[in-house]
Amino acid sequence: MIKKAVLFVALQCAWLMPFAQESAKAIQWKDIPNWQFVRTNGATPSPDGKWMAYVSGPTQGDLTLTLTRTLDTTKYVYKIGGASTPVFFNNDAQFVSFFESPKYAEIKTNEKTRRPSPKKLKIVSLKDTSSVTFNNVQNFSFSNDNGQWIAIRFDNNSLSAPSAAPMGVGAPRQASRSKGSDLLLYNLITKKKYNLGNVSEYSFNKSGQYLAYIIDANGKNGNGIFLMDLTTGISNALHNDEANFSKISWNKEGTAFALLKENTDKKFKSPVYTLIGVKNFKGHNADVFTFSGLDENQITAGYGISNNATPYWSKDLKTIFFGIAKLEKNEDQKNTEKKIDSIAKKDANNKIAAQDSVVGKKDSTLVAKGPRQPIAPRNNEPNKKDLEKPDMIIWHWQDKKLQSIQRNQLNAEKSFTIMSAWHIQENKFTSLADSNIKAISLSPNQLIGYGVDVTPYEYESNLSGQNFGDLYIVDIKTGQKKLAIERLYLNVNRGLRFSPNSDCLLFFREGHYQLLNTKTLAITNLTKNIPTSFVNQFDDHNIDRPATGSYGFTADNKYVLLKDNYDLWKVSLDGKSAIRLSDNWSSHKLIVSGYNRLYEEDDFIDLKKNQYFHVLNYNTKQKGVALLSANSNKLEILKLDDINISTLRKPKNSNSLFYTIERSNVAPDIFMATDKLLKQELKIVDNNPDSQKGKISAGSKLLTYVSAHGDTLHATLYLPANYVEGKSYPTITYIYERLTDEKNNYSQPLYPGGGFNRAMYTSNGYAVLMPDIKYKLNDPGMSAVACVAPAVKAAIATGIVDGNNVAIHGHSWGGYQTAFLITQTDIFKAAAAGAPLTNMISMYSLIYWNTGSSNQSIFESSQGRLTTGYWDNWDAYVRNSPIYHIKKVKTPLLLLHNDKDGAVDYTQGIEYYNGLRRLNKPVVMLTYNGENHGLMKEVNKKDYAVRMMEYFDHHLKGKPAPDWWQKGIKYIDLPKHLEERAF
Which segment of the chain is annotated as a signal peptide (predicted)? Predict the structure, then answer.
């Protein structure tokens, strides 16, 4: 009887819902600036879990910050101006701080006039809401564990005045812009203030007892690194010099810090740096160690300490790690050295000539002294030879990297540093990396590391995208490198990991997870005897046996947690034991989709603590959370529903868990659970005001269909906001690759960079279909046809989709598939393709200008899913290129391609447009000048979004065609057209 009553109520609600939804007014593009929402990404719980702070307000406008108690309805609201703000609580959750900015309109005005928008810092006492405000603040920091202090650094825009030199020393120094500004130390309890002048950088240690700070004053007077003991308030200059200091870096425990000192040396163009290490604190005193790195007997010849890497202490406080880079000598110094060398050579030649004349010998290679060579021009003088040099690039077939890659990476190469170590007790320098092994990953004990040398395979890798490298184990003490694994296939690896005791290194090779003994270099295959596959069955790129994923070692150094395509496994490090923690989830198509790193201080997974994992049901696309209880061997599903749930967050001093939950038509709300099973769940932030409910969508449905290749696949059908059962709706098919795992994700109304915003279309009476695409190698375009066309037919069969009014849109890879699909099927009434590649043969050897690499590697190992170049695979390239089937196009096409597209070359859009135009096919191409692969300028985003909807409204809803589509706009009339449409 009770069941029937519940069913009756449900049916009544279902009957009423369409009318409620139909009455909701659709969102218009002009409404987006005023659309209200909570910035959930920046929402912050207090360390004790008793407060939550979050920013909310319109998309474009003035915002508010709300402080709300998590266990009652107490709220405090603060106006913070037109910019969002990070929120910080002090350690004992007695105070909260945040920025207040000028109003939104003022910020925009300042941006146009390139003026700064100064920020205020507000500090609020959570005990009584009393507050204090500081103007013109640049940054601030609470004193970590101590939590009684806050350091506030103010903006400094003044140019320091010149300082007079002492009498008899010479001319006054030139004016220099110091980096220092006032730093205020504010005691949150006593409200006393202490000002430190000319501070350029500062940092509290973990306990909050010590403040390390750098003075950078006018004329470098009094510059140095200082230490304040906050228990006494006494400061001490640990190291003074007329130099600049930077990059304070405390160790994790707060017992030592390192930094750099910058000096000038007339021998070198760039500054030279000294490494400073500080430890063994005694009140406001400490031991200070310095290493200059200019002695070529200590450091690699021609190199010096680099400021492009932050120095840091080893865990045992015996070593400081830092970076070195080449030192470039001044031209004057080079010329002086050349002159000295020349004089030395001439002196030697004169001696030889004199000796030869004594013995009566002649040497035809000796010549008389010529005129003295002129000194080369200084750097600030024009060099006639430079004016005569050609401006060109040489592309050589044996270049390991294309010239375009080299140009794009020029700044990175200039800032490249070789990881090095200074062993303090021995005063010994060790270079760990080099030009071949460019990075070293340290083991937990920091006695060894690993590095990968890709240079033997770099040429081929840059061509095909199939990446290999030789793995070396590096001795941190000596810098000695031992080859551990030759030609390791890198495309399949999801991160190499050291074990907690540093004795093992986890890697993936030939379809199995394997363990390298870092001492003996012996290898153990961990998964060969486990009755499952660790090859990712959902990855259909041209990669040989890609890995599923690993979550790393357990803290007790006994196990590693691995996942197959569905289940989670606890595997012993000897490979003899494997426990399936998820109880054969593969039989239910349940997937362990991620690990929730809850304990920020833990470097490894501690099985003595409750651990959380994310779950996905492949068949239903439901998402949720599973718990691996402390000391347990079984995952327990706590939540699984038609939702998307965020990462769980645990405050430092609380056992409560915070997370967001969203649905396809419900914005993310913030929840708190006070128990480990998530049963005592409270919604603490509602992100869905009544005025906006029902405006986005009536929900989503998951469709199951069979592709033309015989694969069972899924598609998500998002319902229009005004959905009424039994009625059919115009539909936009949006494509990329696999999209249905995000079935329950909310779509925020906004101006999109790619033109399409799902929320705007479902709000305005469209259904939106997003199908999965499964690819076959050498047939990317035909695979899209095999998957998308059956998905559209399945959607039409539901009765929700109006089969006579279906359109398709995609951007980038989705744009390519859109451009191809309309050459193979007529089921779409209109199409919009953003930045599509259209000719696989011409595109194959063009440059991906955003990185400088060629597209060849993308075609052969990434999205292209082709196995060779077109010369050995001509039919596949032609078969899957839209341009070669262009005569079959009957669908009107809106094409976007920007002239500065650095991903898909602009010529691809031009080629397709001109081909369609030559055949008198209905096509309009939009080009936003100066824009890259996606739109960045807000005015362009809005313009494209509005035009796309006008285009679809005309073709699918029968609305009048906009003039730019119906008859085009003459170039001379374009300014007037754009002015009339200005939003």
Answer: 1-20
Task: Decide: helix, strand or coil at residue 615.
Answer: strand
Tokens of 918: 């030559």
Kindly report the backbone phi and psi dihedral angles of residue 444, in degrees, each rounded to the nearest multiple of 5, phi listed first.
-55, -35
Amino acid of residue 515: L
CB atoms within 10 A of CB 284: 19
Six-digit token string for 642: 């038609």
Range in 263-277, 445-459, 874-888, 899-913 with the lowest mean pLDDT: 263-277
Higher local confidence (pLDDT), 60 or 298 = 60
For 892-929, the pLDDT digits (tens) are: 999 999 999 999 999 999 999 999 999 999 999 999 99
Q: What average pLDDT score do residues 857-877 get?
A: 97
Res 18 pLDDT > 50 = no
CA nearest to 651, candidates 214, 91, 114, 102? 91
Closest CA to 313 of 446, 204, 220: 446
How far apart CA 844 and CA 856 sit, in angstroms, is 5
- Candidates 128, 133, 129, 131; CA nearest to 118 is 133
Contact criterion met (CB below 8 Å) for 211 and 204: yes
The tens digit of pLDDT for each residue in 368-394 reads 333 334 444 444 555 666 678 898 999
Q: What does the alpha-carbon distance between residue 858 and residue 840 come to, in Å, rounded to a whole number?
A: 11
pLDDT tens digits, one per residue of 105-148? 999 999 999 999 999 999 999 999 999 999 999 999 999 999 99
The answer to whether 719 and 664 are in contact (CB under 8 A) is no
Nearest alpha-carbon partner for 534 in 552, 516, 514: 514
Q: How far apart are CA 21 and CA 963, in angstroms?
A: 33
- For range 580-606, the mean pLDDT: 96
pTM of the model: 0.90
Contact 713, 772 (CB under 8 A): yes
In 3D, which of 119, 132, 148, 133 has the Cα closest to residue 211? 148
Q: Look up residue 498 and give its amino acid.
A: F
> Which candidate, 44, 48, 43, places its Cα nearest to that of 655?
48
What is the b/e burial string over 783-794, where b = at least 16 CB atoms within 10 angstroms of the residue's CB? Answer: bbbbbbbbbbeb
Phi, psi of 261 (to 5 degrees): -115, 135
Residue 270's pLDDT is what? Answer: 87
pLDDT > 90? residue 964: yes
Q: How far apart are CA 437 and CA 494, in angstroms?
A: 19
Residue with tokens 């292209």: 864
Q: How far, in Å, CA of 573 to CA of 557, rounded?
A: 8
How large is the C-alpha radius of gyration of the chain?
Answer: 33
Per domain, the residue ranges of the chain are 438-490, 694-980
Q: What are the tokens at 546?
A: 């890609």
Least confident of 339-348, 367-376, 741-750, 870-879: 367-376
Q: Of 2.60.40.180, 3.40.50.12780, 3.40.50.1820, 3.40.50.300, which CATH number belongs to 694-980?
A: 3.40.50.1820
d(CA 933, CA 899): 9
Cβ atoms of residues 27 and 56 within 8 Å:
no
The average confidence (pLDDT) of the chain is: 90
Tokens of 263: 């000096």
Residue from 983, 972, 901 nearest 947 by CA: 983
